[in-house]
Specification:
There is one protein chain. This protein is of the alpha+beta class. The protein is built from nine helices and twelve strands. Strands 1, 2, 3, 4, 5, 6, 7, 8, 9, 10, 11 and 12 form a twelve-stranded mixed β-sheet that branches.
Length: 337
């Protein structure tokens, strides 16, 4: 909330209780926006600001609990015109049950399949994992390691190798500053709200014992890092980058391989990649999970008008609501858009 919420935003937190005990929390952001010359209020869970798998923090996913969520969302004092959750995991019951409850209300809504994200089931041994990947991938990893080792001393360091988490985080920022993202203005070090957000996150996650921060050093210089959280036998991959000057050596690739080897050795069961299906992730896994997007329109003149506007816009774009499938960009034939 401190880092991503804008001055013009409002905050509302839905808290569900049963018998006096809290059983659910949904922090909402209400953000003004302009469409077709009119002011609208867009509402969404705060998790949307970080492009994570949108969730409500619930003790249980059941019809009575989610019915209470939906009823509270439609309270007139919230005052939104459009509400959205865009990263609901399709394979889990939350999204489907929410869509069904909204349909029963005869409310205006959209529930659509949207882009997937990759994940990797970790079991057995690292050697076993490598045997399931292609021979070219295994050979590439060997070449990268040999090339790096020929350029100097290669070390893997974790947050515990630093005097404190602040020093480890500052090292992360130094790599971000030397990454390709810095010139594009998208690095953590270039975006002040990201700098603040991840500094807070690392501090709190470190205290809780969730943080996993790893670095690859080449001749004593940090050249790549991985930032993630480990909760409930799952590694959540949040950020990664490398020193752009070392790009020919692929330090991030070797560090990622070392990360998987460590996680398998620790008994972690699942590796959850970032929200977008980046093409490089396909090198590491063939598993993916689709997402659902739920969009609600308020029963108000502005809500109804905005829903019609989106529908017309979709028709103009040629979006007929057909089956959405993932296509690897490398598989597309030349000349196709």
């Amino acid at each position: 909330m401190e880092s991503h919420v804008q001055e013009s935003d409002s905050i509302a937190t839905i808290i569900l209780k049963r018998g006096g005990a809290v059983i659910g929390i949904m922090p909402l952001v209400l953000r003004p926006m302009k469409k077709l010359g009119h002011r609208l209020i867009a509402a969404f869970p705060v998790s949307e600001l970080s492009n994570t798998h949108s969730d409500v923090l619930l003790e249980e996913v059941s019809e009575p609990v989610l019915a209470a969520v939906v009823d509270t969302l439609y309270r007139p004092d919230l005052g939104w015109d459009v509400f959205s959750m865009t990263r609901l995991l399709e394979a889990r019951p939350l999204g489907g049950l929410l869509c069904e409850l909204v349909r029963r209300r005869r409310s205006r809504y959209e529930c659509a399949r949207v882009q997937p994200s990759f994940f990797l089931t970790l079991d057995g041994t690292f050697d076993g994992y490598l045997r399931r990947r292609s021979g070219s991938f295994r050979n590439a990893l060997k070449r990268i390691e040999r090339k790096l080792m020929s350029r100097g001393r290669v070390e893997i360091r974790a947050q515990d190798d630093f005097p404190g988490i602040e020093e480890a985080y500052d090292t992360l920022l130094s790599i971000e500053h030397r990454s390709w993202k810095q010139a594009h203005g998208t690095s953590i070090s270039a975006v002040s709200r990201q700098t603040t957000f991840y500094r807070h996150l690392c501090a709190v996650a470190s205290q809780k014992g969730w943080l996993h921060l790893g670095f690859l050093y080449l001749d004593g210089r940090p050249v790549a890092y991985n930032l993630g959280l480990i909760l409930n036998d799952t590694y959540f991959y949040l950020k990664t980058s490398y020193d752009y000057a070392e790009r020919p050596l692929s330090p991030a690739t070797l560090l990622r391989a070392k990360l998987l080897e460590e996680l398998i050795g620790r008994g972690v069961k699942q590796f959850d990649f970032p929200g977008e299906p980046y093409e490089w992730e396909r090198q590491w896994t063939d598993e993916m999970r689709w997402h659902q997007a739920l969009v609600l329109y308020a029963p108000s003149a502005r809500g109804i008008a905005y829903g019609l506007y989106r529908r017309v816009k979709a028709i103009v774009r040629g979006d007929r609501g057909g089956q959405l499938e993932y296509v690897n960009p490398r598989d597309l034939k030349p000349g196709l858009p």
